[in-house]
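Our consortium's second objective concerns turning raw sequence data into structural hypotheses that experimental partners can test. To show how far this objective has progressed, the report includes one record in full. It was chosen at random from the queue rather than selected for favorable results. The single chain below, 150 residues long, was entered without modification.
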Amino acid sequence: MPLQPLAYSDARAHHLMTEQQRELRRLYHDTDERTEPFDPVTLAGGVLLGYEEGGELLAIGGLKPLENGSAEVKRMYTRPEARGRGLGKAVLQGLIEWARAQGLARLVLETGDLQAEAVSLYQRAGFTRIPNFGYYVGLENSLCFELPLT
C-alpha cells in the first residue's frame, strides 16, 4: 500500500521536511528561520503518513494533536518530481480519515499566501479560512483554515 503510517523518527520523512522548509524559504525569500519550530515528536498522539513507491518516499503529512479534540495538519509536502499526480490529495485524505476514525472534532492548518496549489488543495477538501491561530497570529503572509469533522 503506497500510503502508510511512518515512525516519527523516519529519516526519509525528516529529509522531506527539511526540503519543504528550504523550498518555503526560497519561495518567501526568507533568510532566517521564521517558520514555527517543529519537532516530529510533537506528532506523538497524532500520525505521520507517507506516500511511498518502490521504497522511495514521495509525499508526507502529519497531524499534531491540539486541545479540544482538534489536530493541526503539519509538514504537507510532495517531492517536486512527483507533483501533479494527486499524492498530496491522497495524504490529506488519509489524514482526514485517520482523524475521523480517532473521533477528532476538527482539523486546522496554516499555509502561506504564495502557495496557491496548497490553498486550492485544502479548499477542495472542504477546509475554510479562519482567523490565524496560535503561532500564526499576526503573521501577514499566513493563511489559516479549518475542517470540522463532526
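The partners drew two points from this record. The chain has three helices and seven strands. The mean pLDDT is 92. Both points have been shared with the crystallography group to help prioritize constructs.
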